[in-house]
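Quick one, T. Sequence first:
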Amino acid sequence: MGEPHPIPRTFLGLPTCPYRDARVEVLPVGFEATTTFISGTRGAPDAILDASRQVETYDPELGLDLAEAPIHTADAVAPDLSSPQAMTERLAAVAKRLYGDGKWVLALGGEHSITLGLVRGAESRHGRMSVLQIDAHLDLRNEWDGTPWSHACVMRRIVEAGHHVVSVGARNACREEIEFAEARGLPIFWARDGLGPAVVRRIAEALHGPVYVTVDTDGLDPSVFRTTGTPEPGGLGWWETMRLLKEIFSRHTVVGADVVELVVSGDTASEFAAARLAAQLTALALGTSGPADTDSAG
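Structure tokens:
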């Protein structure tokens, strides 16, 4: 026998909101081509969507019920496996259309290389942005494993496109990345320094203009996300990360976000944590800064 009340396979199990009426567009992007350690991110969007159906839709802190929110779950973006660059171009075109229609886009990855295409799409409407990167790594290499389009190079490509990157939660980097960050004046907030009120204030002050948020699950401690591409010890805690995000959304216009690098390996706790994170980003977008309704390009 089937379920008496089947839960839709949509974000949070919500009934489908017509695209034209949606303010938030949840975009699954199960692309994986440049992972070099633990693979399995291609299945993450489906796993996050499945886990999200068990997430409570009501946020008691914001007093917001996402069950009543205009959220549309998009069809997954078909991966272009001919090259990471080709996938970047495909995803940029998709994101450009969504932002052109005034949507607030939450992408579910997939490996971190997808962020470049998403930022390019957001740029078409919002212009130059600050990118808040929550990540154990800086991803500022010029090339990795024979390609400049690797997940390990994604933030460098974003900086070269004219955006300001602020890295939070880093705890491993190579000399090339440190030298590049210093030369470009990119702030790095190391995980070892924590996220106390003074640090959070400095992070918020380092951002300017429209803000895009990218969360690599390895930015948080492995006690939160055990199954991620390159788990690093000593990461950010759940609640301090939530407090940081609340501060950023309350002080800046956040125009979109992604959750990337979750590896699917049967760890339901990690998958549920990713779904909770995605729900929190959505609630903050709708209940704090909200989807931007003006074109801030320029």
